[in-house]
């Protein structure tokens, strides 16, 4: 989970080279999302000071440092949606990838994972976990409320990864201060991904879920299938060299259907490499094997 997220994590630096906050890569051409108060503090925004043209960033996955330019058309001040979109010059470093974004709709009570640069570890960063609670508002801005013991100052701009959907569904915006009774110490708020998309049209949300639960993978799911390359290669070698017929046996959930389906996935749909048939009961298997033996 950590590696999945950290490939797109960015540490944003102040003019003095210290950590200002967190950001994350949202497009292949180097757009980065963060909070506007990470780039320019709230009180400085309130004074009406001009925006800086660029900031320095460090990619968490590789340690590469780069300059990132502030896209003023997509700037939203702290009193509004609190969003800043940055753009790097050139290509992303090898090993850095944009994070997959999805809709925040229906994520209430989902668990999440995040990564930011809090005061406890401002250079290397730290992980955070928690639960997405419900939609609310900060002034006129739509937000989602979180509960997390780790999300703190320095996590502003961090992505919130829904661990059920495996999609980033929001960006940390603020944390709540304890009230007079010492409560609300684990409360934080995030900007939903839909707001990021509305502000910056280059941000795209993907609703295609690569996790099939208990459903079998088929040729249509080839883009999301990984980890059986060696088994598929062995099956193809057996069919090409040893026999025109190959039976695959195994307990439920061992990957039989996935292996036979995905073995055809690299070939055109109208030119499958081999014909397959599935039998589940013992009598069906015996009958099927007899049919092939008589051919």
Short description:
The chain is α+β, with helices and mostly antiparallel strands and 295 residues long. It has helices at 2-6, 36-39, 42-47, 193-199, 229-241, 256-262, 282-293, and strands at residues 9-13, 19-25, 31-34, 54-59, 65-70, 84-88, 111-116, 126-138, 141-147, 159-162, 167-175, 187-192. A hairpin with a 2-residue loop joins strand 8 and strand 9.
Query: Into which percentage range does the β-strand content fall?
Result: 25-35%
Helicity, as a percent range: 10-25%
Topology, number of strands? 12
| Largest β sheet strand count, sense and barrel closure | 6 strands, antiparallel, barrel
How is the secondary structure organized here?
Elements: H1 2-6, E1 9-13, E2 19-25, E3 31-34, H2 36-39, H3 42-47, E4 54-59, E5 65-70, E6 84-88, E7 111-116, E8 126-138, E9 141-147, E10 159-162, E11 167-175, E12 187-192, H4 193-199, H5 229-241, H6 256-262, H7 282-293
Antiparallel strand pairs: 1-2, 1-4, 2-3, 3-6, 4-5, 5-6, 7-8, 7-10, 8-9, 9-12, 10-11, 11-12
Structural features, described:
This protein has helices spanning 2-6, 36-39, 42-47, 193-199, 229-241, 256-262, 282-293, and strands at 9-13, 19-25, 31-34, 54-59, 65-70, 84-88, 111-116, 126-138, 141-147, 159-162, 167-175, 187-192. The termini are far apart. The protein has 2 domains: 2-199, Beta Barrel (Thrombin, subunit H); 219-293, no CATH class. Helix content is 18%, strand content 26%. The strands form 2 sheets. A 6-stranded antiparallel β-barrel has the order 1-2-3-6-5-4. A 6-stranded antiparallel β-barrel has the order 7-8-9-12-11-10. It is built from 7 helices and 12 strands.
